[in-house]
From TrEMBL:
The lineage of its organism: Bacteria, Pseudomonadati, Bacteroidota, Flavobacteriia, Flavobacteriales. It comes from Winogradskyella flava. This is SnoaL-like domain-containing protein. It comes from the Bacteria.
């Protein structure tokens, strides 16, 4: 385990900020996939509401290692535009060693689009967290795209924490 990795998982804020930062980059720019794996508990999952091959909108589970294998390959070799995500707001609640965050984020095809506030999509992520072994872990990350049918609730447009 790298010391700089451990420093980035001591608080929920640090962990979520690190997650968004580790995915960003220009086309072909290598991401630190080892670090992304470090953020997730080994049994954690990424779950996205997406269309399946039959055009049904449903949750789709992917282990972070499989995400890295599939999406990482695409980021590193095929994607023709940059990818950056920026968190807009977050509501965090904690109880003992359990944490939960609703995180509203925007995705961009370039740093210029991000500077001009021109996202190509937005998501709301439900992030379940656990504290043990002297650090926070992402246990599951579940997201849903923002649409006209499912707009972002106002409470997710700012940063709030409830112990």
């Amino acid at each position: 385990m790298k010391k700089e990795y451990l420093e980035k998982v001591q608080t929920i804020d640090d962990l979520i900020t690190a997650f968004y930062a580790c995915l960003g980059g220009e086309p072909g720019e290598k991401r630190d996939w080892e670090f992304m794996q470090f953020l997730f508990h080994p049994q954690g999952m990424k779950i996205g509401y997406e269309f399946d091959i039959n055009k049904n909108f449903r949750p789709q589970w992917i282990h972070p290692n499989d995400y890295i294998e599939r999406i990482g390959y695409w980021f590193n070799n095929t994607r023709e535009t940059a990818f950056y995500e920026r968190e807009v707001g977050r509501v965090v609640e904690t109880y003992a060693n359990i944490g939960h965050a609703f995180s509203h984020c925007q995705a961009f095809h370039s740093k210029e689009d991000m500077a001009n506030n021109k996202p190509y999509k937005q998501d709301v992520k439900s992030i379940q967290l656990a504290y043990y072994q002297d650090r926070w872990w992402i246990v599951n990350m579940f997201w849903h795209g923002v649409t006209d049918e499912y707009p972002v609730p106002d409470r997710y447009k700012k940063f709030q924490q409830f112990p």
